[in-house]
Task: inverse folding
C-alpha cells in the first residue's frame, strides 16, 4: 500500500512537472508572437491550450484515483491536495499565455505594443518563462532553496509591472488610450502568471516542509 | 460512518454558503465605496478580507478532516474535492472585491471613475453581487436549475465588460489614459468575480449530477 502510494505520487509529480514545461513553452511562444507580431505562433499557442486543459484533467484524475484507492492521511493527504491545487494554478498559467496570444492575434497585422514598451514585455516574458521552468525544477527536486529563488524573480515581474503603470500614466504617453489599455491587460496577465508559478512552488515546499514559506503554518494555505 | 460523513458534508456546505454571502457583501460594499468615493467603506472591505481568507482555511481544514477520517470514494470523494475548489474560487472573489476597494482608496478623495461610466459599474456590481448570492442558494439547495440562471447573469457581466472597451477605446473618450486604465482593471475584476461565481455553481451542479453543465463529462473539470 505505502509503496503503491509513493509510485503513484511520483507519477503525479512527473505529470505536474511536464505541465509546468508546457505552460512555460506556451508563454515563451505567446511572448514571441506578441513582440514579433507573429500570427502563426499566436495560433499555435491558442490551439495548444486544450492540451494544457487535458493535462490538468489528467492530473486531477490521477489525484482522485490516489485518494480513492490509497486513502492517504496526514501529510500524504495534504501532498495530494497540494498537487490538485498546483494543477489548477498551472492550467490558469496556460490560460494567461492564451490571453497573451489572443491579444497578439486580435491586433494582427498591427503590433499590440508600441516599440518603446516592448523591452518591458521582453523582460517580463523572460522572467515569467523562467519562473514556470523553476516551478518544474522544484516539483522534480523538491528543493526548498530553489523555491525561494522564485520569490525574488516574482518581485522582478511585480517591479516591471508597477513601473509600466508610471510609463502609461505619464502625461507625455504618446500612444493613446487603446495602447495603454492593451499594456494594462497584458501587464496583468504576466503578473498573474508569475504569481501562479510562485504559488505552485510554495505548495511543493509545503509538501516537503509542512509549512508554507513566508507564512506561519499550513492554516495559511 | 456514512451518517457522520453526511453530517460533516452538510457542515462544509454551510461554511461555503456563508463564505458566498461574505464575498457578496464585500463586493457590494466595495462597489459602493468605488461609486461613492467612500473611504471608510473601502477600508472596511480591505480590513475584512482576512476573514474571507480565514473562512477558506476553515473550509479546507473541514474538507481535509472529512477526507482523512471518512476516506470517501466515488461521488462522495468528488463532492469534497468540489468543495475545496469552491472555497478557492470564493477566496479569489474576496480578493477581487479587495482590489476594487483598494482602487477606491488609492484615488481617494478623487473618484476613480468618470461619471459617465459609473452606470456600467453600478450594473456590473449589482449582477456580480447577485451571482455570489445565487451561488449561496445553489450551495444550499443543490438546485441545478438555479445554477443555470447564473450562466445568463454572467453573460450580462461579460456584455457590459466588452461594451466598456468600446467606450474607453472610442476616439472621443474625454477622460484620458489614467481613467481608461482604471476602468480596464476594474472591469476585469468584476468579470473575474462573476466567472468565479459561475465556477462555484458549476461545481455544485457537478456534485449533484456528476456532469459539469455545458461540458461533456467530469473530465472537463
Result:
Amino acid at each position: 500500500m505505502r509503496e503503491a502510494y509513493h509510485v503513484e505520487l511520483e507519477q503525479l509529480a512527473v505529470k505536474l512537472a511536464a505541465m509546468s514545461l508546457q505552460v512555460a513553452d506556451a508563454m515563451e511562444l505567446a511572448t514571441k508572437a506578441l513582440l514579433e507580431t507573429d500570427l502563426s505562433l499566436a495560433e499555435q499557442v491558442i490551439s495548444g491550450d486544450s492540451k494544457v486543459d487535458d493535462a490538468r484533467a489528467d492530473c486531477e484524475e490521477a489525484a482522485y484515483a490516489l485518494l480513492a484507492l490509497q486513502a492517504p492521511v496526514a501529510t500524504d493527504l495534504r501532498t495530494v491536495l497540494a498537487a490538485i491545487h498546483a494543477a489548477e494554478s498551472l492550467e490558469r498559467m496556460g490560460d494567461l499565455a492564451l490571453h497573451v496570444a489572443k491579444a497578439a492575434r486580435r491586433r494582427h497585422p498591427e503590433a499590440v505594443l508600441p516599440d518603446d514598451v516592448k523591452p518591458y514585455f521582453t523582460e517580463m516574458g523572460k522572467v515569467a518563462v523562467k519562473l514556470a521552468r523553476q516551478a518544474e525544477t522544484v516539483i522534480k527536486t523538491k528543493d526548498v532553496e530553489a523555491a525561494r529563488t522564485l520569490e525574488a524573480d516574482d518581485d522582478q515581474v511585480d517591479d516591471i509591472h508597477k513601473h509600466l503603470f508610471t510609463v502609461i500614466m505619464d502625461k507625455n504617453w504618446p500612444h493613446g488610450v487603446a495602447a495603454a489599455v492593451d499594456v494594462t491587460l497584458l501587464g496583468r496577465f504576466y503578473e498573474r502568471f508569475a504569481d501562479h508559478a510562485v504559488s505552485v512552488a510554495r505548495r511543493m515546499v509545503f509538501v516537503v516542509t509542512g509549512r508554507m514559506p513566508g507564512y506561519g503554518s499550513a492554516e495559511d494555505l
